[in-house]
Amino acid sequence: ANLLQGLSSPDSAVREKAIAETEKRLREQGASREEEEEESRTTVNRTLINTSGTARPEAVDADAFLAALEKDAKERAQRRRRNEELANALKEQGNEAFRGGDFALAIQRYSEGLEKLRDKQELYTNRAQAYLKLREYDKAISDCEWALKCNKSCLKAYFLMGRAHLALQHFPEAMQCYEKMLQIDPQKENLVKDCVKQARLEEKRVRDEERAERELQAGNVAALSIQELLQRISSPGQDLLYYTGAIRLLAELVEDSTGQTFFRTNNGFSILGNEAVRGAWCAESKSPAEVGLCVSLLLLWRAACAGNEENQRLLLAQPDVGAQLAELLCSGSPQIQRETLALISLYSENETGRRLLLRLDLSRWLQLLLAFVKSTDARADGAMNILSDLTGEKRFQAQCGAMLSTGVLPLFTQLLVCARQVNQAALARGVAVLGSLCADVGLRAQLAQSRECWQACLQLLDGSSAASSPGYQQCVFAVLGLMMNMLLESNSTIQDFAVPISGKCLALLNHQDGRIVTRATGVLGCVLSASPSAVEEVVKGGVVKKMLKFLKAGGQLTSSYAIRTLSICTKSSRRAQEELLRWDKRFQVLLKVLESRDELTAGNAAFCLSQCLQLPGAASALLGSAVVPLLLRRAGGDTRRTAVRHNAAVALGRLCTAEPRHIHQLRELNGLAILNSSMKYVQSS
User: Fold this and answer.
1) CA angle in degrees (0–180, nearest 5) for 303-347-244
2) In terms of C-beta density within 10 A (0-12 exposed, 13-18 middle, 19 or more buried), how is residue 373 classed?
3) What burial letters (b/e) apply to 631-644, b meaning 16+ CB within 10 Å?
4) Residues near 435 by beta carbon (within 8 Å), at least 6 away in sequence
């Protein structure tokens, strides 16, 4: 019974233990039967035979047990076939993503397939190949080892593991992998020879670089100094590894102000005059040696320019430096990208440095820096820091406009759609950067006109829920801010999207994050004026009751957005007026908002009140309240904004027209002159 329970357990470990115990019992039972048969041949069996025909209980139990075991085996075989079908389907999805260059998605699909079938070798090798593309070599090696546990003769596993070890500079391990390939399939001799040759060349390069660095650091060159190192770097005929070692040592000598000055006075910024150095710096597709040299140059220039404005100016004055920065940002080397971002940050973090950067052609920079949102390391933060520094510069805003519609917007919408697969904290900062760029009227108009941008924003909002990660909620908050900025524009695209935008924001009013609720209310206050249909939809959805709830809570910013939303709804919807009268008994909430120190908030409250006073009985409900002195205060000369005075005067006129008993209190407060002046607004309204 215990064994049967273990065989049907959902826990795989318990199930495997039960299977092992079952096999052990069966072997023991078979051995005991053989012993009994041997005994029957050599001894006289004196046991009385039971002729009643009743089977022994032990036999019945054994038969039932074997039947249950057979049934369990069939069920496990069926489950395996079903899981194998699912795993194959996920493998094909992963292959499709790999062919499309989406290696992260491919890894996800292969991982899902392995959850269905743990011993499927192809999923391990395919995932290892995707990890290689993302330069996650340790994970690739681990997957290859698992693949070999499934199939010890898997050539692909040894081949990929060899590549991963080679990338990590584990040369003996790489050679062992290639030797294993040859043992398994001697016909792969040519392929193995090429792999071994590549491994030996890479090993030689690393050893030579280490030797050159050791020689320089050990002082084999007598009295190493900045001047002598610069002379050696400028001399032709050396290999790139020699120059790389010398440049790295030079970077250590120019870290202080004295070294920076000496570097400048010895014409250190002409280092690109060496043809070999300049060739490596400007090469489009860089070899490992060229990558190492470029990283060394960037480290040198960062050390020479840190806190030194004159050196920063001289560096960007070099013809092959400023123009090459954009190319380095989009290079395929994370090392080069990381050091390039660090160098640019030296400039962007202070006003003088930003002025120097703005002399360059920065039209591609917004697109290039936004692309780092896909990075999971410090490059994303570095890129967003630079964008945040440059956003407020008018010249940068003007240059961004040239590439916004063709380069930036397609990338930006893709990032929003794939928000769950990218660095969400960096994406939120990138969205905030776009929001800040809306200060430029031209950029804001382009963004607000883009249907793709609105669709991507809505798709991101659609994925928000209480279970969303903090990073995703940051993105939602940033997107709502961007939408508020874009809604400063008025165009046909906004009119087309007004209904879905208002619907998404109405749903967000129930969000647990108060900041998101506030911004969703703000978006409603901006978008509803673009579409009467949107007003009707949100009124049906209970927006009036929601806004009254926010006004009662008393938050200043949320209250200002809420009363603006109510003013738009009551302007065009009689149902909104009726609901306001029903939920706000005797207009107690509106009267409280009329007392606000913020004139715009109080003016919108007066506007809402004037709209509701057109309903029968609304004016009578205010008898005995402080509405008359409140409106007189807003309609009088103390209010600076003309629109607020007008709204209060119209409300006062409608109040006394609908319910003349308010005139007595008005006369006592000497407000008849204001009432007379307000009549023209009542007539015009």
Assistant:
1) 35
2) buried
3) bbbbbeeebeeeeb
4) 478, 481, 482, 485
The residue count of the chain comes to 685
Contact assessment for residue 369 and residue 334, using Cβ atoms and an 8 Å cutoff? no
> b vs e for 24-52, b when ≥16 Cβ sit within 10 Å of the residue's Cβ?
eeeeeeeeeeeeeeeeeeeeeeeeeeeee
Q: Which of 124, 210, 134, 122 is nearest to 171 (CA)?
A: 210
Q: Which two tokens stand for residue 460?
A: 């991101």
Q: Which two tokens stand for residue 14?
A: 């318990």
Q: Please tell me the predicted confidence (pLDDT) of residue 53.
A: 47
How many Cβ atoms from other residues are within 10 Å of residue 96's Cβ? Answer: 13
3-state helix, strand, coil in the chain (%, to 5): 80, 0, 20
User: Which strand (E) or helix (H) includes residue 372?
Assistant: none
Query: Which of the 8 DSSP states describes residue 620?
Result: G
Residue 485, token pair as written in the block: 């900025």
Place of tokens 């500079």: 169
What is the 8-class DSSP label of residue 50?
-
Tokens 């070599």 belong to which residue? 137
Which pair of structure tokens corresponds to residue 336? 């080069």
pLDDT at res. 214:
63
Between CA 144 and CA 156 the distance in angstroms is 8
Cβ contact 114:123 at 8 Å: yes
Contacts of 608 (CB under 8 A, 6+ apart): 563, 566, 567, 570, 580, 590
Amino acid at site 618? A
Provide the pLDDT for residue 187. 86
Mind giving me the DSSP string for 394-438? HHHHHHHHHHIIIIIHHHHHHHHHTGGGS-HHHHHHHHHHHHHHT
Please report the pLDDT score of residue 193 as a whole number. 83
pTM value?
A: 0.64
Task: Tell me the chain's radius of gyration from C-alpha atoms.
Answer: 38
Task: Locate 267 and state its tokens.
Answer: 């014409």
Four-residue CA torsion sign, 103, 105, 108, 112: negative
Q: Please report, as a single letter, which amino acid is at residue 613.
A: L
Tokens 């070798």 belong to 121
3-state DSSP assignment of residue 376: coil
Tokens of 211: 């030797």
Q: List, for the chain, all residue ranges whose pLDDT scores fall below the cut of 50.
A: 34, 36-60, 218-223
Q: Tokens at residue 560, please?
A: 């200002």
- The answer to whether 530 and 494 have CB atoms below 8 angstroms apart is yes
Say which amino acid occupies 197: K
Q: What is the pLDDT of residue 47?
A: 45
Q: State the Cα–Cα distance between residues 175 and 75, nearest whole angstrom.
A: 44
Query: What DSSP string runs through 454-509?
Result: HHHHHHHHHT--TTS-HHHHHHHHHHHHHHHHHTTS--HHHHHHHHHHHHHHHHHT
Report which of 587, 162, 523 is spatially closest to residue 595, judged by C-alpha positions.
Answer: 587
State the alpha helices, DSSP H only, in 100-152: 103-116, 121-133, 137-150
Question: Do 633 and 677 form a contact (C-beta atoms < 8 A)?
Answer: no
Cα separation, 240 vs 220, in Å, equals 19
> Which residue has 């008018």 as its token pair?
394
